[in-house]
Design a protein that fits this description.
This protein is α/β, with parallel strands linked by helices. The chain folds into 2 domains: 2-125 and 280-336, Quinone Oxidoreductase, Chain A, domain 1 (Alpha-Beta Complex), CATH 3.90.180; 129-268, NAD(P)-binding Rossmann-like Domain (Rossmann fold). The protein has helices spanning 44-51, 119-123, 126-139, 162-173, 185-193, 206-212, 227-237, 273-276, 284-297, 314-325; strands at residues 2-5, 19-22, 32-41, 67-74, 86-89, 102-106, 110-112, 153-157, 177-181, 198-200, 218-223, 238-246, 265-268, 305-309, 332-336. The protein starts with a strand and ends with a strand.
Length: 338
């Protein structure tokens, strides 16, 4: 089968940064699905994984964690899907990724593809939806009941990115007043179009901008961009006994004492945790993706796709990596059809 992978860590300018490959088609066992991949989308996780230090190896590494496709075969223990079902998922960072014509994935972290979306539109959604949903509802503990969130505010740092595009919509649907951050005219417009009530500039101090909106503090902060850089601003902007969640590991120490006197809680969110540690509740990602599909099909949630490339090959995947590395992506870039 066709796949895109690499044998060693190389700069993006190297011709072997990503390579078109022919590899053996896998066979599903247990609760694995064999999915015929129709579309994949790009995330910072792809670029970070490709940049990670790796010695030269005999077998290629295949990455990619966002896919939509059709179930080709199922393992003997599968209960949730059958051949012919259309699915979407993000997968497991500790297994081969979805940059391949056929892909094995545990059915417990797979959802049914939204019927109203084509494969490319659907492929834009899994990783960002899982991250946004878990961050808001599992980590920050926000209620999905609109009435419980009246007069509650959330600041979403990086509102125009892939996760931000979903988080702003979900927070808006949950009745929160949503303050997004963006620094360019087009990203400000995107954030407002996807559920942000207000937008402030994350390159400037937060509190003066919040006060200009009539707000002293915010109840929740969801940080989707450079935790260390925004730490002091977050500590100043969060309400006493508020909650902060971030999806970005720090590359330098941060002053935890800055949130001590306010009794603020801090949470990490990584949507790969359940799959990586084989947690007992990993089937929650199946339920979560199905709930997202329902919101999409009812018209309450919009796909975040902004660009398509075709076909799925090393040349186009390199272009996609370069787009992510530029730091100026709005929404999601998707590749479709091998």
């Amino acid at each position: 089968m066709k796949a895109i992978g690499y044998y060693r860590t190389l700069p993006i300018t190297d011709p072997e940064y990503l390579m078109d490959l022919e590899v053996e088609k896998p066979v599903p066992t247990g609760r694995d699905l064999l999915v015929s991949v129709k579309a994949i989308s790009m995330n910072p996780a792809d670029v970070k994984s490709r940049a990670a230090k790796m010695d030269e190896r005999d077998t290629p590494r295949i990455i990619g964690w966002d896919a939509a496709g059709i179930v080709e075969q199922v393992g003997l223990d599968c209960e949730l899907f059958k051949p012919g079902d259309e699915v979407y998922y993000a997968g497991d960072v500790d297994r081969p990724g979805c940059n391949s014509e056929f892909h094995l994935v545990d059915e417990r972290i797979v959802g049914r593809k939204p019927a109203s979306l084509d494969f490319a539109q659907a492929a834009a959604m899994p990783l960002t939806s899982l991250t946004a949903w878990e961050g808001l509802y599992d980590r920050l503990g926000i209620s999905r009941n609109e009435q419980n969130n009246w007069n509650q505010t959330i600041l979403i740092i990086g509102a125009a990115g892939g996760v931000g595009s979903i988080a702003t919509q979900l927070a808006n649907l949950s009745g929160l007043t949503v303050i997004g951050t963006a620094s360019r005219e087009e990203s400000v417009r995107w954030a407002k179009d996807h559920g942000a009530d207000f937008v402030i500039n994350h390159k400037e101090a937060f509190v003066p901008q919040l006060k200009a909106l009539g707000l002293e503090n915010v109840d929740y902060i969801f940080c989707l961009n450079d935790t260390a850089m925004h730490w002091e601003n977050m500590a100043e902007a969060i309400v006493p006994q508020g909650k902060i969640c971030s999806i970005v590991p720090t590359n330098q120490p941060v002053n935890l004492n800055a949130i001590f006197s306010k009794s603020v809680s801090f949470h990490w969110e990584l949507m790969f945790t359940r799959a990586k540690y084989r947690t007992e509740d990993r089937i929650e990602q199946h339920h979560l993706l199905n709930a997202v599909a329902d919101l999409i099909d009812s018209g309450e949630l919009k796909t975040s796709i902004t660009q398509r490339l075709e076909p799925i090959n090393a040349v186009n995947l390199r272009i996609a990596h370069e787009k992510v590395l530029s730091g100026e992506m709005i929404g999601k870039l998707v590749l479709e059809n091998f």
